[in-house]
Amino acid sequence: MDDKKIIFSGIQPSGTLTLGNYLGAIRQWVNLPKDYHCIYAMMDMHTITVRQTPAELRRRTLELLALYIACGINPDENTFFIQSHNPNHAELAWVLNCYTYMGELQRMTQFKDKSSRHAENINAGLFTYPVLMAADILLYQTDYVPVGKDQMQHIEICRDIAQRFNAVYGDVFKIPEGMLPKVGANIMSLQEPTKKMSKSDPNPKAYISMLDDMNVIAKKIKSAVTDSEGVVEYREGDDTKAGINNLLSIMSSVTGREIDDIVKDYAGRGYGDFKADVAEAVVEKMKPIRAEFDRLVADKQYLLDICKKGAESAGRISQRTLNKVYKKVGFVI
Ligand code: ATP
Ligand code: LTN
Fold first, then answer.
1. Which are the contacts of 14, defined by CB distance < 8 A and separation ≥ 6?
2. Which of 7, 30, 85, 327 has the highest count of CB atoms within 10 angstroms of its CB?
């Protein structure tokens, strides 16, 4: 490969993407400068850490690719692939499992959170999820991983594992860095604005799905939980203001305007006006994405061809790292 810096990221096809996924992750992928080599995957192997309906998982995996493209990531300039199409991920994950401590996995917030939500199925995959994620990233000698804030703990453990491995065997892995968007790194639930917006929230009013109808999007924003103060103002860290802070972050992310600048527009005006404008701005942003998604998803063969080409390229790049690792740990290759 040339000497371009490498970007790697991915999302699990565990549900329909939310505005949080878009503003926290995908939107930064679209705006990355052309001088990076970008690799984006659909993380189906991570998704089965929570029980799935097979036909739905299959459908959502290709829908996720259609959404990536509909959001503006060009398949001719970027590599897209399905995680399970490149077996190197599972192979490196096994090796890294042997260099990861139970104690550090036990501290992971996502594990604690998901095991309490899925108490009937606390499987070993859920526990070692961060190790597979570390393998995803390290296989490509990744420089930067653009994700939302909730994933930073996983990037940290990935760096720890890589540094530990390098300390024993020399410079095998590049140490990656997380990349957060300036605004929108942590979009909150519309119903409980101190909790993050999540596609697996049982209450659909809490999130905006990228495939919601435009009038549903507007309705959800208009019924977002706010406060009784009636002042459109951003107050970081003030939980009573969490709903308004969140709507301001959303407005700023979708319009590209500074929060301070937006606040000025609403001096002396109520939440009704503000919510109506946020709804309109979000709908404007989502409309073309939705139309492009509908067009792409109807062409399954086109999507499958992209996955095939992407898996070949991902396989080739990652094989070099895996060979090096196997040699270092003493496997006969
Ligand atoms: P689940 O509910 O299934 O755990 P999720 O909606 O939290 O899913 P993920 O698949 O875990 O989404 O995340 C995909 C990407 O979107 C990650 O980079 C994550 O950091 C980002 N992301 C998820 N939710 C938000 C949010 N509320 N705000 C900003 N970024 C987010
Ligand atoms: N855990 C991530 C999805 C994910 C990922 C990755 C993101 C799996 N492997 C590698 C970046 C890089 C999530 O968003 N829940």
1. 47, 50, 52, 60, 199, 200
2. 7
Beta bridge mates, 7: 38, 144
25 and 132 part of one domain: yes
Q: List, for residues 104-140, the tens digit of each pLDDT value.
A: 999 999 999 988 988 999 999 999 999 999 999 999 9
Q: Are 37 and 170 contained in the same domain?
A: yes
Query: pTM value?
Result: 0.93
Atom of ligand 2 nearest to the CA of 43: 8
| CA 67 / ligand 1 centre spacing (Å) | 15
300 carries an active-site annotation: no
Cα dist from 173 to 36, 128, 167, 234, 319, whole Å: 18, 20, 10, 41, 13
134-186 pLDDT tens trace: 999 999 999 999 999 999 999 999 999 999 999 999 999 999 999 998 888 89
- Encode pLDDT of 296-331 as tens digits: 999 999 999 999 999 999 999 999 999 999 999 999
Percent of the chain clearing pLDDT 90 (strictly above): 92
Ligand approaching nearest to the C-alpha of 135: 2
What does R_g of the chain's alpha carbons equal in angstroms? 21
Tell whether 124 and 264 lie within a shared domain.
no
Q: For residue 275, is it within any domain?
A: yes
Number of domains in the chain: 2
For residues 171 and 45, membership in a common domain is answered with yes
Q: Are residues 270 and 165 in the same domain?
A: no
What spacing in Å lies between the alpha carbon of 38 and ligand 2's midpoint? 15
Cα–Cα distance measured from residue 209 to residue 251, given in angstroms and rounded to the nearest whole number: 16
Active site (annotated) includes residue 114: yes
Residue 110 Cα: closest atom of ligand 1: 4
DSSP class of 5: E
Active site includes 219?
A: no
